[in-house]
Design goal:
The protein is of the alpha+beta class and about 450 residues long. It folds into 3 domains: about 140 residues, 3-Layer(aba) Sandwich (Cytidine Deaminase, domain 2); about 150 residues, Dihydrofolate Reductase, subunit A, CATH 3.40.430.10; about 130 residues, no CATH class. Helices cover about 20% and strands about 30% of the residues. It is built from 9 helices and 25 strands. The strands form 6 sheets. Strands 6, 7, 8, 9, 10, 11, 12 and 13 form an 8-stranded mixed β-sheet that branches. Strands 17-14-21-25-19-18 form a 6-stranded mixed β-sheet, with no helix packed on it. A 5-stranded mixed β-sheet has the order 2-1-3-4-5, sandwiched between helices. A hairpin with a 3-residue loop joins strand 12 and strand 13. The longest helix has 17 residues. The chain starts with a helix and ends in a 9-residue tail after the last strand. The C terminus is likely disordered.
């Protein structure tokens, strides 16, 4: 289990990794902190852009000989391949690192993966540490990998004339650009959000010709290296992306005037597009900024192996070692399961009538068969993609709600790390950390 010093270092590494937002694409933003045996920081670093040193190399360069015998705290699994830079797992091995603490396993890792190679070299490796918090920064990159398109944000200004583009000289608009890779304008032109921020030739941006659909534009920009895209335009420009369910976040800027007033008529909507919910609101000098995203809740399949996920957009798909996402308002019970609002908890094999109950957001109870307990295993295991439980088939859905991490009806880990015990429920499990960072 990670020590308090390692947890504190991981949170610092997550903060460091955010310095790479808007510059590292198509690579992920990663942070690394090195600790000596006493838990003191000896070096730290983050990945700035593709082709440059990775976070681990930056931290090792800062620590020098102090890295020997220390602990590497990394937000993403060290890479296992020779690209423009040497593999990070080998750099850590050569530096004499004795322990590595990793937040998120890299879904693009080559071969056995960096974690496996480090373990073979005798390094003690712990994974899944503060994975939910690390995804606050890594979430857009991971979502891009999953959906094969950029995460798309649309900022707009609500005025008496309707919905208009946000003025480019607005400080909040500049902040949005710092965290994005590219901007798509209403006329189809594509520009790097901050010119030169990714380095020469990294993003191969091309203007989108007339008649290009929203989906085609998104795919083309993903292939060009964009992982976070800003839409710069009014309602008409963003309409095709909204209609195709491609807008992942909106930032609405609404002028605040007197304490009493009447809004102008003719707006397409009072504040947010239909189907979007508020996720944040702040006051600035001249505006109220309201952030929104689709749906009431984002649900996530936490296991690598998922079969026949529910929901009209995903029903029937067999997914292996991948994530899929579905809005809560579109979530439907899978075939053969019915919805309950109570979850049994008690001795293994106990009847529903004799078990104690606790309330939950949603539960699906099997009509046909008993489901294994690892389907509702705690988030500590479900966040750890290197855990042996991931080799078993199952699905766990996470919500924002805080639920008990105790498995229902006595489910427990077997001697080989595989969860044992049966239960009649497929439970909507809670994320162990902050709100789901997708997209």
């Amino acid at each position: 289990m990670a020590s308090p010093a390692e947890l504190a270092a991981m949170r610092r590494a997550i903060a460091l990794s955010a310095a790479g937002l808007g510059t590292t694409s198509p690579n992920p933003p990663v942070g690394c902190v090195l600790l000596d045996p006493a838990g003191r920081i000896t070096g730290e670093g983050y990945h700035e852009r593709k082709g440059g040193p990775h976070a681990e190399a930056q931290a090792l360069a800062a620590a020098g000989p102090l890295a020997d015998g220390g602990t590497a705290v990394v937000t993403l699994e060290p890479c296992n391949h020779q690209g423009r830079t040497p593999p990070c797992r080998q750099a850590l091995i050569d530096a004499g690192i004795r322990r590595a603490v990793v937040a998120v396993i890299d879904p693009t890792s080559r071969g056995e993966g960096g974690v496996a190679v480090m373990r073979q070299a005798g390094i003690d490796v712990e994974t899944g540490v503060l994975a939910g918090e690390a995804r606050i920064v890594l979430g857009r990159w991971l979502a891009g990998l999953e959906n094969r398109r950029p995460v798309i944000t649309w900022p707009y200004l609500i005025t008496g004339h309707g919905v208009e583009p946000v003025p480019r000289d607005l400080s909040e608009a500049r902040d949005l650009g710092l965290n994005a890779d590219a901007v798509l304008r209403a006329d189809g032109t594509v520009r790097e959000a901050v010119p030169g921020s990714h380095g020469a030739g990294i993003l191969t941006l091309k203007d989108q010709p007339p008649g290009t659909s929203a989906a085609e534009a998104a795919v083309a920009l993903y292939e060009a290296g964009v992982r976070h895209l800003l839409l710069d335009g009014n309602h008409d420009a963003a309409g095709p992306f909204l209609a195709a369910d491609l807008v992942d976040r909106v930032a609405a800027f609404m002028p605040h005037g007197g304490a009493s007033g009447r809004p102008e008529a003719g707006l397409p909507w009072p504040l947010l597009p239909p189907g979007f919910v508020i996720t944040g609101a702040v006051r600035t000098d001249d505006f109220i900024r309201v952030d929104g995203q689709p749906g009431a809740l984002r649900w996530r399949c936490a296991y690598q192996a998922c079969d026949a996920l529910p929901g009209p957009g995903l029903a029937g798909h067999r997914l292996a070692r991948r994530y899929r996402f579905q809005r809560h308002d579109q979530l439907a019970a899978p075939s053969g399961l019915r919805e309950r609002t109570q979850i049994p908890r008690g001795r293994r094999g106990g009847s529903l009538g004799s078990s104690r109950f606790r309330r939950s957001r949603i539960t699906w109870v099997s009509r046909r068969r008993r489901l294994p307990a690892y389907l509702s295993w705690p988030a500590e295991i479900s966040e750890d993609r290197d855990h042996p439980a991931h080799r078993a088939a199952g699905a766990v859905f996470h919500s924002h709600e805080s639920l008990s991490s105790q498995p229902p009806m006595g489910g427990r880990i077997g001697p080989a790390g595989r969860p044992r015990g049966n239960t009649g429920t497929l439970q909507a499990r809670a994320s162990a950390s902050v709100p789901v960072p997708f997209p």
